[in-house]
Amino acid sequence: MVRxxxxxxxxxxxxQTSLGDGSxxxxxxxxxxxxxxxxxxxxxxxxxxxxTGGRPDDPVLVDADAMLGRIQxxxxxxxxxxxxxxxxxxxxxxxxxxxxxVDRLEAEIDRMNEELSPLNSFILPGGSPAAAFLxxxxxxxxxxxxxxxxxxxxxAVGAPALKYINRLSDHLFVLGRYLNDKGAADVLWVPGLxxxx
Length: 197
Fold this sequence. Notes:
Elements: E1 16-18, E2 24-26, H1 30-49, H2 59-83, H3 99-113, E3 123-124, H4 129-152, H5 159-179, E4 187-188
Helix pairs in contact: 1-2, 1-4, 2-5, 3-5, 4-5
C-alpha cells in the first residue's frame, strides 16, 4: 500500500528522481517521460469525467463514467508498471498490467461499437464536452504509446502494457463517439472544406 506522509522530499532538486526499484535516473529519462505522459492522460480523463459523473438518470453517462473510473485506476497501475524496470526474480513482485485488463477494454469497445452509427469520414475532436476531453485524452495516450515504444527499444517493457496503451486510444475514440449521441453528433471532417474561402 502507498503511504504519503510528505509531499516534497527535496530528492529531485538536482534533476533526478527515484524509480520503483530505488534506482535514480534523470527526470528526462525515457521511462520517466513515459509514465509522466500516462499521468497526463489520466488527468485529461478526469476532465472528461466532470461531464459524465453525477447524472444517475442517464444510463449512457453512468456507463461511461464507470468505464472511465476503471481506466483511471488502470492508468495508475500502468504508471506503477512503467516506473519499475523489469528484472528477473525481483524480491517483491511489482504491479504489472495484465492481459485481462486489455481484454476488458476490447469487450467494452466491441459492446459500444455495436450501437454506433457507421463512420463515413474522419472525426474532428469535439461534439459534447465529454467527447472533446476524451479526444484530448486519446491524443495524450498516443504520445504515451510513442514514448513507451521508444523505451521498449532500449529496455524491457511488458507486452500487456504495450497492448493496453494501444487499445486504450481505440477505446477513448469509440467512447467519444458513444457520448456524441452514439455517433449522431460527431463532428465530421470535410476534406478541403475551407480551401475556397
